[in-house]
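@channel anyone free to eyeball this complex?
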Amino acid sequence: MQTDLVAALDIGGTKIAGGLVDGRGTILVRAQRPTPAQEDGDTVMRAVEEVIGELAASPLWGRARAIGIGSAGPVDASAGTVSPVNVPGWRGFPLVERVRAAAGDLPVTLIGDGVAITAAEHWQGAARGHDNALCMVVSTGVGGGLVLDGRLRPGPTGNAGHIGHISVDLDGDPCPCGSRGCVERLASGPNIARRALENGWRPGPDGDDSAVAVAAAARAGDPVAVASFERAAQALAAAIASAASLMEIDIAVIGGGVGTAGEVLFGPLRKILDEYATLSFVRRLTVVPARMGTDAGLVGAAAAVLAGGAAAAGV
Amino acid sequence: MQTDLVAALDIGGTKIAGGLVDGRGTILVRAQRPTPAQEDGDTVMRAVEEVIGELAASPLWGRARAIGIGSAGPVDASAGTVSPVNVPGWRGFPLVERVRAAAGDLPVTLIGDGVAITAAEHWQGAARGHDNALCMVVSTGVGGGLVLDGRLRPGPTGNAGHIGHISVDLDGDPCPCGSRGCVERLASGPNIARRALENGWRPGPDGDDSAVAVAAAARAGDPVAVASFERAAQALAAAIASAASLMEIDIAVIGGGVGTAGEVLFGPLRKILDEYATLSFVRRLTVVPARMGTDAGLVGAAAAVLAGGAAAAGV
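replying in thread with the prediction:
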């Protein structure tokens, strides 16, 4: 497939991005629409079809041999369906079938967005050269994906690596997912901000009370802001150490908005990780920021096709 | 390798068992020695050599094509060494090299004992037919192993599936491993007994204050004994749900002494698991008792060789 292309789709709650991607991961053609996330399912699908139509209008379309989709989850790669939390019109929506129909019967591979980003980081980013890696997206939610024994490992339904909803505090706060003490409840951007506000941190004159503002306050030495990032780092450290004990990963890559907070996050994270990652075979574990930026979803959806490492929805 | 045999070794802190195992998992010849666990490393190795010597004296030895070792951990399959917690004379002990020398240069495969038991349960036990499984041993310690995408997945050093030392309580009690709130600290037999005693349970006239006695008291309705098993079940449930969210396993198999406690454990475990396993793709998760009994270590060490699914120490 050296000189052929992959049509990649990155479907999220805010935008639907598409691209024609070559064997080196270069995006040669791009298309994008806002996600009409609150509309009915067919309306959302129409936006996907417009993105595909724009790609298909390119003279390069004839070289596309397959389609890779990374979608907000949960997805069900074995059934070819998606049920993104933030797109209520899609529940068990037959995305693989509809995309194939819209794209002239090209084969379609579906994975979750966390898995797509992992494929990108392993191919060309911070996990390159690592045979056993956990890649995470820490932003509004917390997601992830796995590379095991050198290959992307999406799992039977394309959701493996879902580290945001593992419990690191079995008696802890209820999580919207129904469980308790989930990593997302302790470490997501909104929860970093909520905890800082609850403990007395106040935003500056611009009124920005997001995790980005908490990170800025932490860098300036505000102890409540520092403590909120330290608690997030503790939750991430416990979860990453668990993943390493279970799967012998040797690197954790952290992307997403919180992942760009820099030393405010990674300083305490590296320190606390040593406290939880105690077994001999996990002591080499490292944790680093993601490198692939905003194109990771598209590049990763293409990578999953090129690597043949995706789940059963290659139809 | 249909008509050939595997020489299997199961090395623990109490005994060293050996067997010649055929392609159906039948143990045709057996040998066993107590582990001189407090002696120096060469003395322990001598017991292993005696087991091998007894197997080699069998007329069937000529059909043995390879050796599989399941050893108490930590092991390092990539280096061929073992450092069992309960055998202080072996620290980084070159077990693969020494066994190969003792066994006439047959190829040797080394895995951890939790991985060996997993291989056995997947081959012929409770995980048979499941492509994604976590098998656990819950007794004095808590260990385990993984089957992913239909294959044993020992990890680079042969320790993957080490669920006993994942933290489900990030602010919890210190664990001897150095971390906090580990599953083992909450769910092992000695900790089930300790918690019952701390909360006022008292042993009967025979003085037995083990987890077996706590299980008997729980079956008789003692509320403190019931509560201690429920707390163990909660820790196991949180950990199993985490493993499912991370790896899309669909079954957890529990063996070891605590695993034989029956409904005292499995009743609350199944109920509480529903509270932690909330994501759509983990809802089919089931949890069952192990089936392979005391030969699991030997059969599993043979299975790892036959499946070719073991780590890098096939030398």
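from a first look: Chain A touches chain B through 47 residues (CB under 8 Å).
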